Amino acid sequence: MIIASVSAAAQTPAPSPAPHPTTPQATAPPAPAAPPTELQKKIESYIRDLYAFGTDFTIKVGAPQSTPISDLSAVSIDITYKGQTDSTVVYASKDGKFMIRGQLSDMSVDPLASVRKLIQLEGAPAKGPHDARVVVVEYADYECPVCRELNTLLTTTLLPKYPQVRLVYKDFPLADIHPWSMTATEAAHCAFVQNPSAYWKFHDSIFDNQDLISPTIAFDKLLDLAAHAGLSPDAMRACMADPKTTQFIQAEQAEGQALEIDSTPTVFVNGRRIEGANEQALEQFIDYELAKKPSPPKAP
Fold it and tell me: Is this model's pTM higher than 0.90 or not?
């Protein structure tokens, strides 16, 4: 559970649209909330005392939920302080004697299978062997400085060292903090649609020219980089204005959100998550996967 961040800045939710005027209708009064159980009361009291959460902190302890472990319940906790809320889940024994903070893992299943299932590789820009045993999937933002650092690391060090690895690039623009990242994402997608073989040259040129791009000149600068990569600026304009381009990027963002990505770059090596341009972790994960015995072929 996050303690220090209770008073830290949180993401500001988008404002809700104004309701349309409607004819008032009679509605049934909401059902009264169930009184907290003894377990809920005990968890709230314990957390308040452990972390000195006074009356200026509001703690909402959810109803205990069953887990695969019969004597262990999952309990959601929302802590609100000065209008900002932090959430977590704890596990408590049903007799109220023990509480565990952490993640419950089922060791009978592949822990990474659910992650890999969420990652859609078909149709994404990629380079490296199609039958690679190790696939590195990068979720990045063209305006992100650490993403530029990772791109340099991948292109100049890791991929030459591991030619048997396949790299897949996925768009995850953080438009709230990077004002021209969405324009760059649209341009890069349109470059791939127009000419996949020219995509990577254009992709790298955006990162290489990151310091020269600003919100006011981003569109023209990106078209200029596209022309130098052998792409048609007119075709780029038409594609960037096409609603299908927006729909594609929104689908990429939804995929990243399903994977609980909240920063860029985030990389998955056969499903193992790495955040940032961490060369040591990348090599460790790649070496581990390459050293594993290949899975036997499935029966026809």
Answer: no
